[in-house]
Structure formats: structure tokens, C-alpha cells
Design brief:
4 helices, 20% strand, alpha+beta
Amino acid sequence: MDATQWQERITSELAGLGQQEFVIIGEPSPPAPAPTGFLARLRAKSSRSAAPSRWGQVLCVDEVLYAEFAGTQHVGGSWEASTEQHEALRSAGWLTPDETDPIAPAPAVAHYWRTVPRSEAARVAGLLVDAFQILGADFAALTLERDR
């Protein structure tokens, strides 16, 4: 699936969201490496963490869509990105955690975010597709999960 097909699919999914339902679009999480060596299991348990992945999610509450996208180190997140990529995300319309918007307060996590009226589902889908493109995601590897 390419970027245009993803935008159409996300728009369709968002249009069908009910109250408190959400969708998550992202890359599969890479498996954690297997521990090796003496006492590796103990070390691995305490120090192993999942590698960051690119993902976005949208929650529907009342007539508002709350969108989040994985944060880069520029906003306190874990995904490595260049300054140019961060600026491109901002130019695309994503807000940083320290910004406000007239519809809702910022999330308490280090993610890019945006809230829009539900009637603008295509705009949210565009924001997500733009973010995946900016950060170099492989559209063929993305998955979509819907939670009810």
C-alpha cells in the first residue's frame, strides 16, 4: 500500500469511529534481542527495552479527533530525527507537547499531537501520512489496528 492508499484507508477508518474508539497505525515493533552470556538474562531483564518505532493513533471523543504521533528526541520522545525532519513535522501541522490548541489541552506525553473536528478526518489522515513520509517509514510495513 502506498501513501495515497494509506490516506484513503485511514480517512475511512476515522469516519467510522464511534465514541472512545481509536485506531493505531504503525510499524511492527522489532523483537528484543535474545540475551547471551553468563547472567545475561538478569542484565537483559533490567536493561533491555524495545527499539522505538514510528506510530500514530487517533481517538474519537464527542465530535473531536485526538491525534498523536511518536515523539522524536526534539520533543522528549525516543525516535531519532534530524532538525529538518522535526521542522517538517511542525510545518505539516503537528503541535509539540508544550503547545496548546483551542479544542483541547496538550497530552502529558512527549508526542506530536493535534486535535481537529471529526468532520476533518481526511486532514488527520493527511497529517499521519505526512509524518510517516517525513520520518522515512516503509508504507508496505505499516499496520492498522482498530480498538473498540
